[in-house]
User: Fold these one by one.
Assistant:
Number 1:
Amino acid sequence: MPADQIHVYQRIYAGHLPQDIRFSVRAASSVLRNFVGLATHAIWHVLYSILFMGNCQHPVRCILA
């Protein structure tokens, strides 16, 4: 991030930092949780399709292995 951009943010947040930081942390953690959930979901789908499209006779056993 360029230095002049940082100064702009510092000026914007100078008056009400604590409140905005709390809000930003809450928003960021929410976004992060959603992202992790989606990533986990996508990874599970990929693994699931590999297991079922491969030469696996007993998918449940492959998943538990």
Note: Residues 20 and 26 are 10 Å apart (CA to CA).
Number 2:
Amino acid sequence: MRQVTWPRRPAIFARPAFATPQVRQKAGAGEFALLNTR
């Protein structure tokens, strides 16, 4: 949950499929939490 997720964030954000539960488990709760905070 630091700068390491920064480069990965835009790529995942661009994908609408990220909202799906399957992708959510793949990305992990940590990365999904970042999307929730936005």
Note: The mean pLDDT is 58.
Number 3:
Amino acid sequence: MADDNSTMLEKAVQILVPQPCFDKYFVDLNFFDGACAKVVISKCLGFGIILGSILVKLPQILKIVKAKSGQGISLSSIMFELIAISANYSYGFQKSFPFSAYGEGLFLAIQTGLIAALVIFYGGNLIGSIGFTLVYTLIMAYLMSPLVPMNILSLFQSVNIFILCLSKLLQVVANYRNGSTGQLSAITVFLLFSGAITRIFTSIQETGDNLVIMTYVMSTLFNGLITAQVIYYWNTVFAVQLIERFDVRPVLVVGVLFQFLGCFMSSFVSSYPLLFFSMAVVLGIGSALSYVTFIVAVDKYFDKKKSIAMPLATSGASLSGTIFAPICQRLLEHYGFHGAMLIYSAIFLNCLVCAALVFPLESKESQRKVSEDNSMGMSFSRKPSFILYMLTNLLYIIANFIPNGLLPETALSKGVTQNDISLTFSVNGITQVIGRLMFGFLSHRLPHHIKYLWIIYLFGFGLSLLIVPLSTTLVHFFVYNLINGIFNGGANMGYNLTLRNIVEPKHYGRAISIALVMQGLGALVGNPFAAFLKDVSGSGDIPYYFGCFIFILSGLVLLPISNINQSKSPEIEITVSEKGVYSHKVIDTNFYAVRERDYELFNGPII
């Protein structure tokens, strides 16, 4: 009996730990095998997704039932999504993939079908709801049977990528037209987004099927778009709302403390989950708070020549890559990872001094009034010019980090040493500073053509990537980093200064935070997709051609709004108080500057 229990337990463990890895872990006691670690992590994530998928759309179902309405939910989107889920599930079943690689499709199909039936039912069509359920059940029974040829399912899976993108795009359009996300559940949206990201890894590990992998890459991208919509239609631009409520300095201090805490915790952790929490969550929150607050602070503290102030203020981002790369290497060599993180946490504490020096400019009463004025919502996000601007932010960041991620490996494959290629990155950091300052100077001299300047820099960044496939020596890589650094610095400066010509100054804080959200989504997808292209094509040059295409496309997307003439007469507002003080507020509707000053007009009473 004991042997039977032992055998059952062993079989249960082998669901997550396949036989070869089971022997290494529990027979040879080798717990540090990298290949087995990937397999076990993939299995755990896969079954975790399946377990989560049982309830992932339950919040959406409950929300529809509670509201007795499907308002805000695109039925066309739901139908296309159901087709995509069904194709993916039936393809995985017929290909005999591990259940952990596709099993969530069964539960997602049931819940998505139920949502579609509820939307039809609450739309006043009971017969249609019942008929839809019966037809869908019969179709799925056929797809799961041996009657379906495998080549048909493969074709279905190929078309599935387009269907999936279309389903998500329909929901994006519906949200935009409604100006809200309606009965769309934020919990469901976030779970689908995180699940799609995880599935990229598990699909690579467990199936190796390019069709399946590409499906989840596109699912991540479009679920990310819907997630971004939920964020700004709900007015949950967290960092900016904190700034509007508490002002710049407190938020900056809290952000720095989070960064310190993330590094400090990382210096003591000994497991990956804890390291993920300390680095990705705690340090990530601190970085988001600090960076957004820093950008808003520069905009707020400078009335004139902001196009010069911003490049000067952000040039430290480029210099840090030059300075801290060798410092980090030396710290790791002498003190190890934990010691290096402890030293970095001490460095972050020094930033508290800088944050404390960001003194408030206005009284509390004035801050409260500004906060009330800024709470008028997100109406600017529906302007076509802003939508095109957001799309440009998403696209160019997808390709922005390809050189950082792939260039060292490319250089090594062509005979350039690791130390030499690190030196070229230092050159890139220096020229990025020059590129930022050049962009700021040109923007100041040509304030009506900032978007054109950004397009030129985007094109330049993209075209510079074409140098890499032609590079064979260290000199070539030096030339690339020299040219790329200039365009890189300007391209990463342009998104900030261009925004001033698209939205009103009072909306700048929220607009820039949404832009950074879109950039985060692009960064999340960019390098994994570039690596996927490299593996599929078998060529290390393909990611650079892809990056060039994306940069050119991002510039072309921005082109239709580049010649919009926003020039209007300035608005002048004069208020006279009983104490003989008047406030003179000039708003330049080209949005290059906002100036507020108080002047004492009379020492005596007003006549």
Note: The chain has five domains: 1-32, 36-233, 237-356, 376-566, 571-600.
Number 4:
Amino acid sequence: MRRSDALGSLFAASDSAAAYYTRFETHDRYADWFGWVGTALVLSGFVGDLAGGGGIFSRTYLLYGAGLAVTWGVALPAERRASTDLSNAIWWYNQSLAGPPRP
């Protein structure tokens, strides 16, 4: 799911849905940014290996490790949090459509 102004205006119908959608946008931005950083680090390590990295103790393995750490340690948890926030926003939006509980 991608961020969009149309979804933002849709979730504005409920305060809780709007709050969770705002959190979704923030976490999704973090996940995108750190995902690109992790990918760039892994690709830098790959290019370093192609250029003759220098054996098993080369510095390119640091780039691989840093790229995987950023991707798995930061980007994936942020993406998971964004998914949970979007799910909560949808739930609160649907709850606002259902109205108050009946006795």
Note: The two ends are 36 Å apart (CA to CA).
